[in-house]
Every structure is written in structure tokens, then in C-alpha cells.
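Table S2 (text version). Query chain:
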Amino acid sequence: MKASKGIFSLVLIAILICTTTFAQIILYHLKSDYQRTSLYLEGIQQRILCRSIFTWAVENVNYFDHFQIEHKLPPNDKVCIIEGNNTQSTDKMFAKVNVKVTSNNKEQRLTQLFFLPNKQFKNYGEQYMFISKYALSGTEYLSNDILYTSGGSFPMPQIEFLSTEGHTSFDMTLLHENGFTNSFYYLPQSTTLTYLSTAKTTNGNELIASKVNLTFQKNFKAPGRLVVIANGSVTLEDYVNLGKVLIIAKGNVNLGKNCKINGVIFSGGSIKISGNGTYSHDASVVADFASTIFIV
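Corresponding C-alpha cell output:
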């Protein structure tokens, strides 16, 4: 009888130990789940806060250089640091907006680049399709409703700002396969954007700034919005089709035969039209241009 009681006690103790251990395991996992959930919700709060402040910063890109503030996240009032920076070129036509939210050694960051044409560019672009230092060559190929002006004076945008901010070369294979990516490019060497018969249309938007010359190969077709800025010359070979383009060249702009261009063209040299083509003025291309938003 005593032996039976002893065995029963041992079994009971074993059950109690197992139950206690099991309860501790459950509590450990519940605590871990709570911590993970809490950190996950904190991350969501930071992302929402970062996006909200970033939206404000973009809307006020001309009115701040730097700010840093503290903010408490509910429900535990954890302190996070909100920091914003607006870096601009000296001519104020390029800007980089960056917003960072830091809390518990975690960081959320958003960055975007902007091209902000000055009032002079916008005024010219609203009135004329062609603006050049010298008289336009090939006016016989233009319809009577296309207005142009020669002797137009304008400052070249300071594209050097992009030398540390933009991509520095095109991967033509990726360009043909995926199109433009709404990015900013700074090309230190003369570049030709090539045409591929199996990828006849290059979709997407882009800002392309070249330190020297830029060429669009024969048959190149891009219906999206392009901002093309070159400290050298810009050449559009025969049958190039650009659906919404702003071209600003310090040097000459050469337009091949049978081009189809919708937009505005500025040249610090001469503009030469080599043959029949379709040219239409679109003042909307001189509006501000923004890159995609980068999470870095």
C-alpha cells in the first residue's frame, strides 16, 4: 500500500514538473511572439511616420535645408529621431530630399531626386518648341503652327550635381529588356542609346544628363517622358520617335530625317533639321521631374 502511494506521488510530481515545464515553454513563446509583434508594429509605425514626413518634405522642397526633431511612438512613448535633408545644386535646379526616422537602432529612410527647371526655362517652353542661340536650320520642314525663337539665352543646368547621385552608365541589355526606370543618369562619356529590332519601344521615364555628347540611334522609340541634358551636342538619328521629351543642349542639336518629336528643344548652339518629320510642341515637358523614391 505504501509502495503504491509512493509510485502515485512520483507520477504526480512528474506530471507537475512536465506541466510546469510546458507552461514555461508556452510563456516563453508567447513572450517571444509578443516581442516580435511589438517590434513589427514599431517598424510599421516608423515606416508610416517616415512616409508622412517625406511627403511633407517633398511638397516643401523649396522651403527647408535641414531639420531634426524628436517624436514619441505610442503606446510606449518610445522616442524616435526624425531627420530631413534637402541638398540642392547652386542653381537650385537639382535637389535631393532625404528623410530618416531612427528608433532602437532601427532606421527607415526615403530618398528622391528632383529636376526643377527655373522660370526662364518654363517661360520659353510654354511659348516655343525650339529655342536656340542661332537661327534654326531646316525651317522648311516645319508646319506653320510651330513657333521657334533664335538668340534665346538660358543657363545650363548644373548637371555636375548628379555626378555623385545618379547612375553613371547604361546597361543597354537591361534598357532593351526593361525600359527606363524613372531614375537620374549622369554620363561622363559620350553615349549612344541603341535601338534593338526585338525591343522596338523603350518604355518608361528618365532624366539623362551627359557631360559630353548624347546620341539616340536610328529608329529609337520612347513614348514616355524624357529629360535630356548635355554639356555637348545631342543627335537624334533618322526615324527617332520621342513621345514627350525636353532636350537642353549646350552645343548643337541635330535632328535626322523622319523624326517624330513631341516636346521642347533648347540649344546653346544651333538646331538643324535634316528632313521631313513630325514636330509638335508640348509645354508640359518643362514641368518639374522627379525620380522614383528610393528606400536606402
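Notes on Table S2: DSSP finds three helices and 18 strands in the chain. Helices lie at 2-59, 119-127, 172-178.
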